[in-house]
Amino acid sequence: MTYTAPPSAGDSSDATPGAGGPATAGTATTAQPVSRPVPRPALRLVVVLGALSAFGPLSLDMYLPGLPDLAGDLHVGAADAQLTLTACLLGLAFGQLVGGPMADRWGRRRPLLWGLAGYAVASVLCAFAPNAPALTGLRLLQGLAGGFGIVIARAVVSDLYEGAAAARVFSLLMIVNGAAPILAPLAGGQLLRLTDWRGVFLVLALTGAAILAGAALLLRETLPAEARGGGGPGRIVREFGALLRERRFLGPTLTGAFAFAGLMAYIAGSPFLLQEVHGLSAQQFSLVFGGNSLGLVLAGQIGGRLVRRVPMRRLVGCGVALQVTGAMLLLLSAVADLGLPGVLPALLLIVSSIGLIAPNTSALALEGRPRTAGTASALLGLCSYAMGGLTAPLAGLSGTSSTLPLAVSVATTSALALTAHLTLTRRSG
Hints:
mainly alpha, 429 residues
């Protein structure tokens, strides 16, 4: 296929597959290794899109070190505290469902700026939530607004790049996006020395406002008016139905969603597992969490280099194998009571696997959809975040005294990811 970029509504320096140059033509298929250099995106485009993609980890990870204190302050149990995480996950899912079609109809910039402003306001309201039900509802709104940034960032990549080039850009986004889960819990742990969990939400509000300013200044429109889709909800439903019947879309989407659900189980369960079961402090937990996130970034960069020579589906398979291995090791640690020496390597494998799975499943699912990239990106995100939101509370249903609930959750989701990859993704398209 040909790597081309549509004309942008403003400065076109970021609207080309190269770093400020004209589009480069070439041919590649997803079933064969790419034999030509993959174009490099402009740095500022990577930074802005990475920041937008980081709304998930920022919203979920920064307050993780304070989750046990939040439960105590609001007089709720671990499962109830994790519902605030689930609400944010579901909000991120349905925010993408709304924001993607809006971006196909009205362009990328306008819905994006609306969502970023809403995120900053919702974060302020979270800081003043009087009780757990109110916080849960506000976290849902915060996630809805943040979902706009995630879905539109993917749509912009799909506007500008295809095939292996898109996979490489998604891998590069792991640098910026991966910095969020490294820095967010570290920052959250340090913030808890100065303030409580409410102060963390105020910092999230300031972060959202900063990303809003950056997007307004640096991100140009990438979907020209003549390429925008029309129609109402009926058209969107028909497009969703067509995508769900398309094996080429469904295979990588389900594989990525199940793998992402395992990551969400880790995010929800690890604060209680590492702090209450294994006795780590909030600061020690943030260091472990950041180290695992660094593994995700490194895996993403390795995949970004290998995509020039290795088919994307094979890289997905390697990532799924890593997650299954980590899940089996975590189960063994729970059954044999291996303690931290068994738990920590297992968690590292589970998290690092996403660096290979997410960029390549996203590129495979969104490939060749110039007019409906936002809608396809919305359904891709909905599947991942909805699955993650349903899985996250399972890690706390049996209390906080054992590794087993988290191990069973991740083992189940990784087995489902493997099944989807073997039965759908490898034979799709």
